[in-house]
Write a structure and sequence with these properties.
Blueprint: H1 2-32, E1 36-44, H2 53-71, E2 78-83, E3 86-94, H3 99-107, E4 112-117, H4 120-140, H5 157-174, E5 182-183, E6 196-201, H6 205-213, H7 215-218, E7 225-229, E8 242-249, E9 259-260, E10 264-271, E11 278-284, H8 286-298, E12 304-308, E13 311-314, E14 326-330, H9 335-347, E15 354-363
Antiparallel strand pairs: 1-3, 1-15, 2-3, 4-8, 4-9, 4-12, 5-6, 6-8, 7-8, 10-11, 11-14, 12-13
Helix pairs in contact: 2-3, 2-9
Length: about 375
């Protein structure tokens, strides 16, 4: 009798649990099938002269275009209200599963910049000085490896491999920077024409950054020189582990780019016959057209670095002045990468960084 009651009790418990699960799933299904109104308060990350009513209005316009371009949200479902130093944005009939990505797209401050550059030949001397100074600093800190060659005198294949290993170890000891930052040199030892001054294994980029940020090392380079990494490994590298380091020239008093994404009116993806033949065509506004013509005129036979979110995506060499405000970007893009960049450019660039201060998801009856 006791055994029967126990079995009955267990069965009853299982039935109750099953009923609870069904109820939860039913509620979840009903909730997911409904749409929401999403209300958020958007404010500048920091207050500044540009976070005025005009800047907020431009910010609201960029957000509006992003929502339309990325999510195809109807314009009538986007209701921005600018009040003092904030934007109250209400989105009607939103799928709750998309809220996270909507927040990321709204606040993402993606930047496209066109910057002047240094030539590799103009920087190699500074790199050599930096390498020498780092060696002195290493010795003064007693942080130097002892040379050991336990295989000296061994004949055969091991002698060759050991000699190579010892040579590499010695070079690493003598050249703290240039042993990990491979200079871009021809077989004759001459600097290759480019703004790319070297290539570095992905695992060593942190070490190069640390070296170049040291006060004593920074003092060796011109004040208007800034280093930017490539956005992806080099196409000529079969291992896909090498990133390029580029020498960018800062030419404005506020260190901003002379031409940027805010000057772009429209962008579109252009594909060629090959799957990797992907370009982005850009049309600039009148201000950008004038600035781009001046920038290309000043830099004939030099590289212009196209920087996206702080990384170099392309660095073409200027052949002649470009007028008319039309230009193309080539940068080893995939179709997906090109489409994402075009969506960003067509949406516009935020005039300042923003954040979401408050948010509310309202279930519609």
């Amino acid at each position: 009798m006791i055994l029967f009651n126990l079995k009955f009790s267990l069965m009853k418990t299982k039935i109750i649990l099953l009923a609870c699960i069904i109820a939860v799933l039913s509620f979840t299904a009903n909730t997911l099938s409904k749409t929401f109104d999403y209300k958020i308060k958007i404010v500048p990350q920091e207050l500044s002269p540009v976070t005025n009513q005009s800047g907020l209005k431009r910010t609201a316009e960029v957000i509006n275009r992003r929502l339309v371009n990325y999510f195809a949200i109807p314009r009538e479902n986007i209701k921005p209200n600018i009040a003092e130093a904030q934007i109250i944005l209400t989105l009607h009939d939103i799928d709750s599963g998309k809220v996270r990505i909507i927040k990321n797209v709204i606040t993402g401050n993606n930047k496209l910049e066109f910057r002047e550059t240094y030539e590799n030949s103009e920087v190699i001397g500074y790199l050599t000085k930096a390498d020498s100074l780092l060696l002195v600093m290493r010795k003064q800190g007693n942080n130097i490896k002892e040379e050991k060659n336990p295989h000296t005198g061994i004949k055969g294949k091991n002698t060759v491999s050991t000699a190579v290993t010892d040579t590499r170890e010695q070079f690493s000891n003598d050249h703290p920077l240039l042993s990990i930052l491979g200079p871009r040199l021809s077989t004759a030892g001459d600097p290759l024409p480019s703004c790319m001054i070297g290539v570095v294994g992905v695992k060593d980029t942190a070490m190069v950054n640390m070296y170049l940020k040291m006060d004593a090392i920074k003092a060796l380079f011109p004040d208007d020189l800034k280093f930017f990494w490539s956005s992806k490994p080099q196409s000529f590298d079969p291992s896909k582990t090498l990133l390029g380091l580029h020498a960018i020239k800062i030419t404005t008093s506020d260190r901003s780019a002379p031409v940027d994404g805010s000057n772009i009116i429209s962008a579109e993806v252009i594909t060629g016959s090959g799957k990797n033949d992907v370009k982005i065509s850009l049309k600039m506004d009148p201000e950008g057209t004038r600035a781009w013509a001046e920038l290309t005129r000043k830099n004939i036979s030099r590289c212009i670095a196209i920087v996206y979110n702080g990384y170099v995506i392309s660095y073409p060499r200027v052949q002649s002045e470009i007028t008319g405000g039309l230009t193309e970007i080539t940068g080893d893009f995939t179709i997906g990468e090109a489409n994402d960049l075009v969506n960003t450019l067509n949406s516009g660039q935020l005039p300042f960084e923003i954040k979401i201060a408050e948010e509310q998801l309202i279930l519609k009856e």
